[in-house]
Design a protein that fits this description.
The chain is an alpha/beta fold. It has six helices and 19 strands. The protein has helices spanning 14-25, 57-70, 133-136, 154-161, 180-188, 281-316; strands at residues 4-10, 30-34, 74-77, 80-86, 89-94, 99-107, 111-114, 129-130, 145-148, 168-171, 193-194, 198-204, 207-213, 218-220, 223-226, 229-232, 245-246, 252-254, 268-270. The strands form four sheets. Strands 1, 2, 3, 4, 5, 6 and 19 form a seven-stranded mixed sheet that branches. A five-stranded parallel sheet has the order 8-15-9-10-11, covered by helices on one side. The longest helix is centred in the C-terminal third of the chain and has 36 residues, at 281-316. The N and C termini lie far apart (56 Å).
Amino acid sequence: MTENYEVVVVGGGAAGLNGALMLARARRSVLVVDGGEPRNAPADGVHALLGHDGVPPAELLARGRDEVRRYGGHLAEGRVDTVNRDGAGFEVALADGRRVRAGHVLVATGLVDELPEVPGLRERWGRDVVHCPYCHGWEVRERPIGVIGTGPMSVHQTLLFRQWSDDVVYLRHTAPPLTEEQAEQLTARGVPVVEGEVAAVEVAGDRLTGVRLRDGRTVDREVLTVAPRMVARTRFLAGLGLRPQPHPSGMGEYLPAGESGRTDVPGVWVAGNVTDLSAQVGAAAAAGARTAAMINADLVNEETRRAVEARRGAARGPVTTNRL
């Protein structure tokens, strides 16, 4: 680490590392600060990522870090505590007391999955408790699946997982009562509905066997899926007035931004799950690259503006004053 960077990237996941790679290849001074808490750490592999399907998440990130270093990018382990305006740029303060300055900040900290308070659910997360059919559907295909209802998107999630298995049960849990249309859709797709709250996850050995309801009934299942409440990690931006907002879908909280990743605070940009709650690894990485290109374009425009001003000043020559 040095004291000054053109760009500090907060978050070393797919979006942050791909953004840093683009910036380093553009010959920018860039630092990636990462707290080492990737969202997909419990998963066995990353899926639906062309050329890397099935690669363990830790291996993918290790490759990314090596590539950033190859082009002169810097990486630091640590958690960013605050980001505050400092003149024309920003001061980035880490929790361990280290501080650096940055002309631009790219926030790619992702999100936190808030799961229902059901005993045993968190312990199986990313294994046989999953949420994304495109990430995990193939791996759980043709197995008995139970969908735990938690919100307005749960029925949609159930219909998606029905694509991968003909043995899907909808456990309504705390989700809103079904509308007539939803009930008809589930019936038409052969999905039974089980009323009642889920009290606990049932496990035998190291294998999920089903759920126990509050009334004592049990429902045998080998896989559970649940839609978590997804909350962007942006607390360190509060000093700049940037706070997560409720997502229009009701899925959680995100940090709104323009298509390029530009936020309402000039010089602060976002990419990946922090602003796109449903982005998979490939989409997050692509967003990091796109936003990094926009940051570089901003830097080029500013450098060009200063060069033009300097040229005009040199053409005018020194200013003289006539005195009587």
